[in-house]
Design brief:
single chain, 5 helices, 5-stranded parallel beta sheet
């Protein structure tokens, strides 16, 4: 099987399976659900995702974080064994932070892989790389895949600014992980 080349400008698109819905089933809310966190080593990604998961527990009733891993390569999709580990150990996944072109594409690829494995996923990318993230979704057969954006850049924020950013994103993360299929 050949691997498509991703144009980070968003100009070239290989729409092999446009419009295919790959979303995992959603529950009405996060009450009692186990959260998985996959961070990609980008500066402030760990703090942002840790704070988001804390808010999902304290505000939205999730049971807690059962898996928190760091990807070995931020620009490559998660390997199948990691996806399987999450599928067996949690109910929903929060991943990112796409704060550059390749890591945004990779974060969306991870989100699609988690959805294919039956796990609702919330991907966080910075808004400057939405074209790259959208292109990766299309390359993965998930045109229109929904993910969250946050103002670019995340890497330069202070810890307090990261926590504030997480607080602004938390309700949207919860909404993306729950409710009817979109």
């Amino acid at each position: 099987m050949s691997n498509p080349i991703l144009d980070p400008t968003g100009r070239a698109v290989d729409a092999r399976e446009p419009g295919v819905s790959l979303l995992a089933p959603r529950r009405p809310d996060l009450t009692g659900l186990r959260i998985g966190v996959l961070e990609n080593t980008k500066k402030n990604a760990d703090l942002l995702l840790t704070e988001l998961s804390r808010l999902l527990v304290t505000v939205h009733g999730a049971a807690g974080v059962t898996l928190h891993r760091t990807k070995q390569q931020f620009a490559a999709p998660a390997p199948p064994e990691l996806i399987e580990e999450y599928a067996g150990g949690c109910d929903v996944v929060v991943t990112g932070v796409g704060d550059c072109g390749s890591c945004s594409a990779s974060a969306v690829a991870d989100g699609v892989l988690f959805e294919q494995a039956g796990l609702p996923a919330a991907v966080v990318c910075s808004d400057a790389f939405a074209a790259t993230a959208d292109t990766m979704a299309t390359l993965r057969g998930a045109t229109g895949y929904r993910y969250l954006t946050t103002p670019h850049p995340v890497a330069v924020l202070s810890p307090d600014q990261v926590r504030e950013r997480a607080a602004r994103l938390a309700d949207d993360v919860a909404a993306l992980l729950t409710g009817p299929l979109r």
